[in-house]
Amino acid sequence: MPLIRADSLNCGYGKQPVLHDVSFSLAAGLVHGLIGANGTGKTTLLRTLAGQLQFSGELVVFGVHPFDTPAVMDQTTLAGIDAPLPDGWSARRLFAIGAARHRRWDAARADDLLERFGVPGPTSYNRLSRGQKSALSIIYACASGAELLLLDEPYLGLDVQKRALFYEVLAEQMARPDTTVVLSTHHLHEVETLLDTVLYLDGGGVAMNGSIDELADAVIEVAGPTEDVDRMLGRLGTPLELVREELSVGSRVVLDLRSSPAAAESVYETASQVSGRIRVGEVTLEQAVLALGGERA
């Protein structure tokens, strides 16, 4: 049974849903990347999963409906710059409250991360920099002991070194038992080695939901002289062109193989038969997601 399951889910603010008729499932023990342009509903979905927003349709988290449900809220931590803390609270006060709030609070983990991120413990929240505020949210989430961490672009304001530290800390967190992460991000190229699945929101719904391995097998790139590429595609017949780019030396085409997973072998074989000038290769996760997302645009 998945940890999170949505079926025809509608959620948002007021009478107009931000997300409508959304269906997906997320398994326990994995890092799920939540991606999409600004305004597509990532924060709305995370707040709904955390039990903060009402919804219609079906949504189950930890086996129950999440809205205002202690069984969900006690096992879930939502962190990010859009989940701010009271201005007068310091990290030390936050940690004291966290210890009282979470039965699995890890004080040693909190102190270790506070030092590694360089956040001053006595300083009130409203006097921290944006990066320090983001770091404090990350620290709280990782020390909470919650089984479900909902991280809403937690890297905002962090410099390059601190972002790298965040990914290091996230990898450490996933080595702990009973941890599931849903990470909203715009930096796929930085985090793709940590992700197990991607949930892509677009146009008020789910444009794509699948494992990283499935995406790697589903999208392939072909490049070469235009006449050779077109002849090869004519022989294949089935793959869908997601992206075509005309280059000075020919064409580059990104193909969608989801309808025929075995087609990758066929692409390589046909390319070699048509011309030795055709290059076939994998694309990055970010390229795959952008190409597949464009199918909906």
TrEMBL record:
The keyword Nucleotide-binding applies. Gene3D superfamilies: P-loop containing nucleotide triphosphate hydrolases. One of its GO terms (molecular function) is ATP hydrolysis activity. Keywords: ATP-binding, Nucleotide-binding. Residues 4-228 form the ABC transporter domain. InterPro entries: AAA+_ATPase, ABC_transporter-like_ATP-bd, P-loop_NTPase. SUPFAM superfamilies: P-loop containing nucleoside triphosphate hydrolases. This is ABC transporter ATP-binding protein. It comes from Corynebacterium maris DSM 45190.
